[in-house]
Write a structure and sequence with these properties.
227 residues, alpha/beta, five-stranded parallel sheet, Response regulator, Sig_transdc_resp-reg_receiver
């Protein structure tokens, strides 16, 4: 199955470089290029993209707004957005995850990391930046003010729908662990972990694992820690 990739960046040279890289892979193809967020949303719909590589800072409709539009459109539920950023430690990164992005990747990442991120995003399996530290999201949520009184009560109530094991798995997901790592920690099979993750996503209304991480922190299940 070929992964259909849409490139959204206002720098034509960068888009060209990404196109050459993506089109060189037998399981991927670039189906469109956008120079701003509004065009990215339109092309995502028209070209039935699987993954959008989305720059945050673009003229007009920026990547953050475009990500919100894609996430809010039921017809684009299958589209996964990977945020491309020059600085991985960026306030917009967490805002993008909250808006519905599947994860983020630094523009300085190695080609293999970018290709891997596209495949991971298409599969909805993991948080995406190989170079990001596991505590990055926690630190930003702490900086943005996620004290107990600021936590989302609706999401906190939704946690009541989770079983004890699903909560346990969610805590591990929020810590940045893969299914295999969680399986080893909890002494269960990776398939069992995947089942729990999928059920937690369905109950909490999360698009993918990245959204599960944000929900875990915003609901108060996991507390931010600044190192």
């Amino acid at each position: 199955m070929t992964i259909r990739v849409l490139l959204a960046d206002d720098q034509a040279l960068l888009r060209s470089a990404f196109r050459v890289l993506v089109d060189s892979e037998p399981d991927m193809e670039v189906v469109g290029e956008a120079s701003d967020g509004a065009e990215a949303v339109r092309l995502a719909r028209e070209q039935r993209a699987d993954v959008v590589l989305m720059d945050i800072r673009m003229p007009g409709t920026d990547g953050l707004a475009a990500t919100r539009m894609i996430s809010a459109d039921p017809d684009l539920a299958q589209v996964r957005v990977v945020i491309l950023t020059t600085f991985e430690v960026d306030d917009y990164v967490v805002q993008s995850l909250r808006a519905g992005a599947s994860g983020f990747l630094g523009k300085g990442s190695e080609p293999d990391e970018l290709l891997s991120a596209i495949r991971v995003a298409a599969g909805g399996e993991a948080l995406l930046s190989p170079a990001a530290t596991k505590g990055l999201i926690a630190r930003f949520l702490a900086q943005e003010g996620t004290a107990d009184q600021d936590r989302d009560p609706v999401r906190a109530e939704r946690l009541d729908t989770l079983t004890g094991r699903e909560r346990e798995v969610l805590v591990q997901v929020a810590a940045g662990h893969s299914n295999d790592e969680i399986a080893e920690r909890l002494e269960v099979s990776p398939l069992t972990v995947k089942t729990h993750v999928n059920r937690a996503m369905a109950k909490l209304g999360a698009r993918d694992r990245a959204q599960l991480v944000v929900i875990a922190y915003e609901s108060g299940l996991v507390r931010p820690r600044v190192e």
